[in-house]
Write a structure and sequence with these properties.
about 325 residues, alpha/beta, Rossmann fold, six-stranded parallel β-sheet, two-stranded parallel ribbon
C-alpha cells in the first residue's frame, strides 16, 4: 500500500476496525473508505456489489463481523453463523470481481479445535472438533479462511487471513450479556467499586488460561502484513497468520489484575457451574514474527489504558 491508496475498512466502528483506522491514520494513510451499517448492510449482496462498483477500493480490511462472548455465542448461534457467512462472502467475492490488490480477512483463534495442542499453530486448523460454545461463529470464520484460500488458488487473488488472539482496547464492548471476558470483567468490577459491593461473581472456575492483545498492536500487525512483499510469504502458509503475544494469564489472574487497576478492594468469587470454555488457548505467532513483527503493549499497560478510556466514555 502507498499513502494514497484507497483503503476500505469494513467494520470501522468496531474494536478491530477502529484500531485499524487509528493506526492507518497515524502511519500517514489518508485515503480511507468507510460506511456504517445504516449506509451499507454487508449481509445484502446487492448493496455490497453496488458499493464496490461505485468506490473501487484498492485494499480491503475485512473487520466487519458479529462478535460476542460465551453467553452471546451460546444464545444466538443462528445469528452468528448467518451474519458472518453473509458479510464475508459478499465482501470477499466483490473484492475478487473488482480487482482488489490485497484483502485481509480477520478471523479468530476460536477456529482451532478445542483439544488442539498448545500453543496453537496455523496447521492445526480442521484437525479436530471445535469448542461447542462458539462453534457457529468458528464455522463461519473457517469458511472465510477457506474462501480466501480458494479464491487465491482459482483466481490468483492475494487474500490473507489472520487469526488474532483475544483482543481488547478502545471502543470495546462492555455490555455484560455480549462482551468478551476482559471488558466484561472490567465493567463488572468498576460497577462493584462504585456501588461498594463486597464481592464480584466471575463466570467459571477462574482456571482457564488465555492470551490477550491490545487492539492497536493487532492493527499494527495487520498493516504490517498488508505491506509484506508477496514473494516473502511462504508458499506453504496458506496466507494464514496467527497474531498474538505468546503471554498467558489465568482468568483469576486477569480478574485480580483488573481489580488492582480499577482499585477494587472487594472479594472475587468464582462460579464453577458456569462454562469455562477451552481450558488453555495461546497462539504461536512465530510465522508472523519470522517476517519481522513484534507487539509492544504489555497486559498491565493495556488494561490501564483501557480503564482510562472507559472512565472518559
Amino acid at each position: 500500500m502507498n499513502k494514497n491508496s484507497l483503503i476500505y475498512i469494513a467494520g470501522h466502528n468496531g474494536l478491530v476496525g477502529s484500531a485499524l483506522t487509528r493506526c492507518l491514520r497515524e502511519q500517514g494513510y489518508h485515503n480511507l473508505l468507510f460506511r456504517d451499517f445504516r449506509e451499507l448492510d454487508l449481509t445484502r449482496q446487492a448493496e455490497v456489489e453496488k458499493f464496490f462498483e461505485a468506490e473501487k477500493p484498492e485494499y480491503v480490511f475485512l473487520a466487519a463481523a458479529k462478535v460476542g462472548g460465551i453467553l452471546a455465542n451460546s444464545t444466538y448461534p443462528a445469528d452468528f453463523i448467518y451474519d458472518n457467512l453473509m458479510i464475508q462472502s459478499n465482501v470477499i467475492h466483490q473484492s475478487y470481481l473488482h480487482g482488489v490488490k490485497r484483502l485481509l480477512f480477520l478471523g479468530s483463534t476460536c477456529i482451532y479445535p478445542k483439544e488442539a495442542p498448545q500453543p496453537l499453530k496455523e496447521e492445526y486448523l480442521l484437525t479436530g472438533p471445535l469448542e461447542p460454545t462458539n462453534e457457529a461463529y468458528a464455522v463461519a470464520k473457517i469458511a472465510g479462511i477457506r474462501m480466501c484460500q480458494s479464491y487465491n488458488r482459482q483466481h490468483g487473488t492475494d487474500f490473507i487471513s489472520v487469526m488474532p488472539t483475544n483482543l481488547y482496547g478502545i471502543n470495546d464492548n462492555f455490555n455484560p450479556e455480549t462482551s468478551h471476558v476482559l471488558p466484561g470483567l472490567m465493567g463488572k468490577i468498576h460497577k462493584a467499586k462504585m456501588n461498594g459491593d463486597p464481592t464480584v461473581m466471575v463466570w467459571g472456575s477462574g482456571k482457564p488460561l488465555r492470551e490477550f492483545m491490545w487492539s492497536e498492536d493487532m492493527a499494527a500487525a495487520c498493516i504490517f502484513l498488508m505491506n509484506v512483499d508477496r514473494a516473502l510469504i511462504p508458499e506453504d502458509s496458506g496466507k494464514l497468520f496467527n497474531i498474538g503475544t505468546e503471554e498467558e494469564v489465568s482468568i483469576r489472574e486477569l480478574a485480580e489484575l483488573i481489580c488492582e487497576v480499577v482499585g477494587y478492594r472487594g472479594e472475587l468469587r468464582f462460579d464453577p457451574g458456569k462454562p469455562d470454555g477451552t481450558m488453555r488457548k495461546v497462539t504461536d505467532p512465530s510465522r508472523l514474527h519470522a517476517l519481522g513483527f513484534a507487539h509492544k503493549v504489555s497486559l498491565r499497560e493495556g488494561i490501564a489504558k483501557l480503564y482510562q478510556w472507559y472512565l472518559n466514555h
